[in-house]
């Protein structure tokens, strides 16, 4: 087997084991799952930790998500395009959350590091690109819309935040579009007072 294929086979075999056992996974378990001799691992990776790092990098790699967003059909209705974005992000998060739990990963930011990470910026720009010709319909800045989409999807998908009641992509998109499109009903301050609440003007 060529070295690249052997490396790929080991990474694929290790991923479910890392999710199940975390850092306690053994090279013997990985070798058995990959149907290779245990020594094969050390001809490809320096040690077990190096293999686990590659597994984590594979899951955290944003490139597949960005490619998926770029492939969304721009001729679809805006709601369908935004739904496709949310679904793609949900799939990515469903792979990341278990890995974070298994390995206890965290990425604390320095106190003076207040700007967006490059990866975050790439995602936001990609979302804005998907909205494309419908940007004028938003009543918030496009980057704010993209950031809100990410925040809602993250919190609505994370099992420790959503209280066991995750929101579907359609529900998330309904909050986003029905609350942020400029062509929706005009906000009426009086609707905040139950005694004055009536039909909202459109």
TrEMBL record:
DNA-binding region: 26-45
Coiled coil (UniProt feature): none
InterPro entries: Homeodomain-like_sf (IPR009057), HTH-type_TetR-like_transc_reg (IPR050109), HTH_TetR (IPR001647)
Keywords of this entry: DNA-binding, Transcription, Transcription regulation
SUPFAM superfamilies reported for this sequence: Homeodomain-like
Signal sequence residues: none
GO molecular function terms noted in the UniProt entry: DNA-binding transcription factor activity; transcription cis-regulatory region binding
Domain annotation HTH tetR-type: ranges: 4-63
Name of protein: TetR/AcrR family transcriptional regulator
Organism this protein belongs to: Goekera deserti
């Amino acid at each position: 087997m060529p070295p690249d294929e052997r490396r790929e086979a080991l990474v694929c075999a290790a991923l479910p084991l890392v999710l199940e056992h975390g850092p306690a996974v053994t090279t013997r378990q990985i070798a058995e799952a990959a149907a290779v001799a245990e020594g094969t691992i050390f001809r490809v990776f320096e040690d077990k930790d190096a293999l686990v790092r590659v597994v984590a990098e594979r899951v955290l790699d944003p490139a597949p998500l960005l490619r998926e967003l770029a492939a969304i059909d721009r001729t679809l209705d805006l709601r369908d395009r935004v739904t496709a974005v949310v679904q793609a992000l949900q799939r990515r998060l469903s792979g990341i959350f278990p890995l974070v739990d298994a390995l206890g990963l965290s990425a604390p930011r320095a106190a003076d590091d207040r700007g967006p990470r490059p990866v975050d910026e790439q995602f936001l720009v990609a979302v804005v690109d998907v909205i494309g010709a419908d940007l004028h319909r938003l009543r918030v800045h496009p980057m704010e819309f993209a950031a809100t989409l990410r925040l809602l999807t993250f919190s609505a998908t994370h099992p420790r935040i959503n209280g066991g009641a995750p929101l579907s992509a359609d529900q998330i998109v309904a909050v986003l579009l029905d609350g942020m499109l400029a062509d929706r009903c005009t906000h009426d301050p009086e609707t905040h007072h139950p005694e004055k609440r009536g039909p909202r003007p459109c």
